[in-house]
Amino acid sequence: MDVRYLAATLLVIVPPIVTADPLTTALDPLATVERVNRNYNTVDNQCREPDTGAPRGHYYCSGVTLRMVDDGPFNPWDYSDYAQRTGATSFSWIRKDLSTNRLIRPAGFILRTPMDARALNLPVMETGFVCLYTFDGFTGPERKWYGCGRYNKPLPDNFQKHSGTTPANRNQHLAYGSCDSMGVDNADQWHRNYRYARTDMNRIQVTQCSWNVEQPSDWNAMIHAHENPRTVARNLLGREVPARDNFARKEALNEMLLRNASDSGDGSARLPYIDAVVWDVNSTYAATVRGAKQKAKPVKGLEPARNFQRKLYAQGYAVPVLRLDFTKPASQRFSYAPEDQVVTLGHPGEPEPSTPGKPAANYIKSAQWVLRLDPGTGRQEWTLSVVPTAAGKASQLSDQQAVYDELVKAHGNDPQWRDHESSTGSMREQLACLVANYPKKDVWNLEPFRPNVGASEAAKAGCNPYVAQSSSLIASSRWSQFRDQDSGELIWGLRVVPSEKGRAASQEALYDELLRLRGKDVEWQEGGEGSMRVQLACLQANYRNKATWNLEPHRPAVSAEQAKAQGCNPT
Prior knowledge:
- The structure is a single chain.
- The chain has 3 domains: 29-340, no CATH class; 367-461, no CATH class; 474-566, no CATH class.
- The chain has 18 helices and 20 strands.
- With 571 residues, the chain is of the alpha+beta class.
- The strands form 5 sheets. Strands 7-6-10-4-3-5-11-13-14 form a 9-stranded mixed sheet, with helices on both faces. Strands 1-15-16-17 form a 4-stranded antiparallel sheet.
- Helix 6 (187-193) crosses helix 8 and helix 9 packs across helix 11 (400-411).
- Keywords: Signal.
- It comes from Pseudomonas putida (Arthrobacter siderocapsulatus).
- This is DUF2599 domain-containing protein.
- InterPro entries: DUF2599.
């Protein structure tokens, strides 16, 4: 492994991917914000299916149902790994008679009420919701029946015996609240069960029961309990005194569970029901949710909301970005701002705006994905190689957003972009950097993996910003290719330079660090499970002071004795 390493770049040309489907939803944005505000301010506790007269939960005809989500290399409507394990996804419901003033994220999307969908002659989501919690329910797979059962408890026999309505509604086969099974039918009974505040942060979260999402009386009880938590503690004399529970505050959110429409992460079945994208103008708060792999960071909601709008547009849905402002009067809770929009909004069947007598602009001549070895990251990375048309070059400064929007519409949902843009807005920043600093370039190479560092830092980096991963055990590591002497095939090898601390570290700690840095790289394709672990341990034990250690994933996994006998190059 000490020789034969050649600097090599692997280019894989991916054919252009088809652009987005024609728009299927494009409602008047002003009508949308008027409708959402009306729902927020309409206190209707008697929702019914208009054709059957069957009772439905309050969400069916009033209030606003929304899901606030992270932005990243995924679609906001898809299901997280944790949601897949639960079988359901969390939403919140707000209305003017609730005091909720902060949500779990600063950006997300709004679901259209079934009654609005009927009036607009659009798809109606008649089934799917299961239960709701007065406050955040610490939901997960520990709660059976799509996150609605008691925490770490089995479902009781005939658990849905109290879930029906008269006449039966279309969703009663799914609807269930654990409060039904516990004899908790109203707010007073809820208070008797959940009035004590404790020091552990998830007291209310874990212990509270869930309400049936289709029982109007359960909704009334939820609202009353939410607005009057009445949490108490016992003082030294044993008397109950008012006390604060961090999760049982009327300003906090509630939680509704919507059963996933598929067993995979694909949530696209919910796309026809999304009414708008939304962002909270006064909040950068982002809670760290269950199943998250890292702590959430504060973020302004506008750019995530714009990215959600672009992703929806790429799927054929033109919905507006709305502002949410809890400091405004209830009648102005939501608003529409043209400057927040990054796609064309209009009516179904209408072409995008263009100058009279002039054909609509076509800014992108071609765009192809290229997989290449990056000198900064030391691994293969995706590059979108974009060739603008003459109109695109002419508009690269004056109408840059339109140029970018066309690129997003064509390729924003490609897996190379969607799954690899690790820093929100990175592709947009790279385009701006190239136009500003290299205006004569006829090819724009945009790379989703690059961080968003700001215009000044991007320019200093030649529009190729890169933040190296830090490690106290491994000073550097990078992939390169060599040609195998026996087969003649090109094979990947990993050149590793350990730090002094790394050379002295335990074999387990050093391997875990290498796996963290490189284990997800596409080049890490082992010829036998554990091959890289064996080679690393062999090099550390027998060639500890060697400057560079070379590891090759294609090699088989053998015993430590065999690896040592073959100079850490097992065959």
